[in-house]
Amino acid sequence: MGFFDSEIVQQELKQLSEEYQSLIQIGGNYGKFDREGKKLFIEQWEALMERYRIFMKRFELSEDFMAQMTMQQLKTQLNQFGITPQQMFDQMHLTLERMKSELDKQP
């Protein structure tokens, strides 16, 4: 069975995508959130990023041709922006840490 043939993989990919789209959509109103709303938003992003990191590790470790091709395509796309997958995660982590820091400064 191929990597993408797994129902679990398909489900997780669909869920990650839907959650990502949802957070992007509601993130447009981040400035209107109260402190607790901002805190929850940041926590949801952190959880999503951790799940995404694990999912990508599955791609990396899989011997499936399609999984390897997908990982290579992602690396190529990120390389066009001059970053690696690890740098992408590091940058997102820094952004979330900055958001938390700003949150801590609010009354």
UniProtKB/TrEMBL annotation:
<dbReference type="Pfam" id="PF08855">
    <property type="entry name" value="DUF1825"/>
</dbReference>
<dbReference type="InterPro" id="IPR014954">
    <property type="entry name" value="DUF1825"/>
</dbReference>
<protein>
    <submittedName>
        <fullName>DUF1825 family protein</fullName>
    </submittedName>
</protein>
